[in-house]
């Protein structure tokens, strides 16, 4: 019998394509790569926060902080990019996939945050890669 960690990893792999498509759609819909002021380092910083915490709310808090600091409106506020990203993580595709995996594997509530954080990290990584592609082509 497969252990729970391996089951979670396999379930996440099944949904990676959805995460990639959704991250790419967010970049394309917001046109964040055209803002002129939004840099690769800003997404890397969020990814770094996600990799250093065990809590998705910390990531959300950091993004909200960045939105609040964007006085020019050409970074995190550009076409609602930051708010849309928070929505994707909190109640959109990222959380939706989390919920699917938890139900599919009949995981305990204590595992929800673990799965959610792993998916958030992946999502931010895909977002960063595609942003770099769009900004530089």
SSE blueprint:
Blueprint: H1 4-30, H2 40-52, H3 56-69, H4 81-90, H5 93-105, H6 112-135
Helix pairs in contact: 1-5, 1-6, 2-3, 2-6, 3-4, 5-6
Question: Nutshell version of this structure?
Answer:
It is built from six helices and no strands. The chain is mainly alpha-helical and 137 residues long.
Task: For this entry, give a set of tags.
137 residues; 6 helices; mainly alpha
Give a description of the structure.
The chain is an all-alpha fold and 137 residues long. It has one domain. The chain contains six helices and no strands. Helix 1 packs antiparallel against helix 5 (93-105). The longest helix has 27 residues, at 4-30. The N and C termini lie far apart (47 Å).
Residue ranges: pLDDT <50 for 5 or more in a row? none
Determine the number of helices (DSSP H or I, runs of at least 4 residues).
Answer: 6
Spatial gap, N to C terminus: 47 Å
Shape: elongated
Question: SSE order, as H and E?
Answer: HHHHHH
Major pleated sheet: none
Strand content: under 5%
Q: How many domain regions?
A: 1
Instruction: Calculate Rg over CA atoms.
Output: 15 Å
**SS class:** mainly alpha
Q: Mean pLDDT, as a whole number?
A: 96
Helix residue percentage: over 70%
Query: What is the strand tally?
Result: 0
């Amino acid at each position: 019998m497969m252990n729970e960690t391996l089951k979670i990893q396999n379930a996440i792999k099944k949904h990676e394509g959805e995460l990639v498509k959704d991250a790419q759609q967010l970049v394309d819909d917001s046109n964040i790569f055209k803002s002129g002021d939004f840099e690769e380092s800003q997404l890397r910083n969020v990814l770094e926060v996600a990799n250093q915490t065990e809590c998705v709310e910390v990531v959300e808090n950091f993004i909200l902080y960045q939105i609040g600091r964007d006085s020019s409106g050409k970074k995190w506020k550009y076409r609602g990019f930051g708010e849309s990203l928070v929505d994707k993580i909190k109640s959109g595709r990222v959380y939706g996939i989390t919920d699917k995996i938890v139900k599919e594997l009949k995981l305990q509530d204590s595992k929800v945050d673990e799965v959610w954080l792993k998916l958030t990290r992946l999502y931010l990584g895909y977002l960063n890669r595609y942003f770099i592609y769009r900004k530089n082509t």
